[in-house]
Amino acid sequence: MCSIIGYKGRQSAAPIIVDSLKRMEYRGYDSVGVAMIKDGSLMVRKGTGKVAEVNQNLGISDMSGLIGIGHTRWATHGGVTDSNAHPHSACKNNIAVVHNGIIENYKELKEELIAQGHVFSSETDSEVIAHLLEIHHGSDVKKTVIQTCKRLRGSYAFVAAFQDGTIAGARYEEPLIIGVGNDGYFVSSDVLGFLQHTDKAIFLDNCDIAVIDNTKMEIFDFDGVPVARPITQVAWELGEADKGKYAQYTLKEINDQRLTIANAARQDKSAMAKFCEILGNAKSVYITGSGTSYHSALIFKQILARFAKVRAETVMSSEAQDGLAAIDSDSVVIAISQSGETADVLAAIKTARAQGAKVLAIVNVTTSSLARSSDCFLSTNCGPEIGVAATKSFTGQLALAYAVTDRLAGGALKAGEQAEFVAAAEKVISMCQPAIEKMAGELSDVNDIYLLGRSAHYPIALEGALKLKELAYVHAEGVAAGELKHGPLALMEKNTLVVMLSPDDATHSDSISNAHEIKARGATVIGISDAKDEIYDHFIEIPHMEQEAFYPIVEVIPLQMLAYYLALAKNADPDYPRNLAKSVTVK
Ligand code: F6R
To answer: What fold, for 249-417?
Structure first.
């Protein structure tokens, strides 16, 4: 969702803030703004568009001063307009605030503030924070922020810059991290916001307030009691977030899978042992996640049952209220998340914890709220994933699911870092790229695609459909091929486009029969398989797998590529799909 950054130090703040916002732009990219404090006055520049564009138009990085705050927005309340862009200030124009989250009681607060004579200049929920700060503003910034927080309901991380040069941040259910630099402090929603300057981070807890004045940085709880939070050294590799030789992050991250799948399969032995011990002792197991991470949960469930004889329930995190209704203290929840900050996932584990369940996590961002609040976590080890569509994190999650299952199944899967799928995934990238690029060019007019698969290929059909929707804006539906005759076959007619996932495994012959049924209705069929068949109009060849359970991690890669190249063919920006954001930190 939105990203926030504050800086107070000895360097010129505006270029630092603009650079941070560019690095965090994947979190939200509909508008940008910066507020600077200089010589006791506040200056704000903000507008709609991407960081580079707004910076060029408004000259943000030319703003002078050593203290500033910045924001990229993903609209929740109020349209994408200049006035709704953050920072917001109140009537006296002496405090500016940037916010990530949702203020649930903003309507009543706004009415109350308007009745007191306050004038609002945006439609956002966030602006109430600026007015509340103004009302409570006194000589003690800590008290000002505490009194403001006490009025807010919902979820928030905000950073405020005061005319006297003090910066303060507060956190409730949204991440906020302090970067401790050699010559200044950063306050950010993501370590990527400051990792280019310092690897020393302080992760604020819920209900923490940080105040940075001219002499020091102090942290308090919402009662004003000073609290000590440790300084953590964050791995520098997390900051390696550039595109390298690739035109887009998405293309880079698809190609990164040549290495990242092996990295995910290579796990810290003690963390793996602890994870499997907790899992193995559970009486009931639930696996939860959202979007792409939920699709890997579906595959994890299948292989756990098949190879380790562990029965697990999958629960979409946004439906956890019902899905986790029967959870108890003998249960374990495995939460899967690239970011570790998805609001629905965090809410699901809160529900699980309230019933006494243990929480295991599979995450990519090891400094995330999910990782830090779990009983044990395993890392997908993929490095930063910046493209909004999940690619390498998904295959990392699958590699980990195979590795965990393998350990519980006494090595039956052979899923370590030398696993068969590591080489196959590397091979499939080079094998498929030219054919898929060409095919995407030919299919640029397509508006509907059906993806069919049985068994483990069904979650991949869902995942492929999700990639096509978000990257190429194509209506795409993943269908369990066995369900075709129970309804979806009615949609098959001349020129309907169908992708059939039909590797040479136990599902193959039934899938080929389905392909015949579809073809008989005039549809066009793209086959993704290691076994060529004359029924396909187009064929994407994937490597043969001795262990058929590994086909999903390999066959998803051509689908990621198809979505990417179709996005280009349709002139869409694959890195920044419309209306989406990388970390969905609001419900
Ligand atoms: C799809 C996609 C989203 C995420 C979902 C969960 O390409 O990226 O569906 O998978 O928002 O995000 P994480 O895994 O960060 O919890």
So the answer is: Rossmann fold (3.40.50)
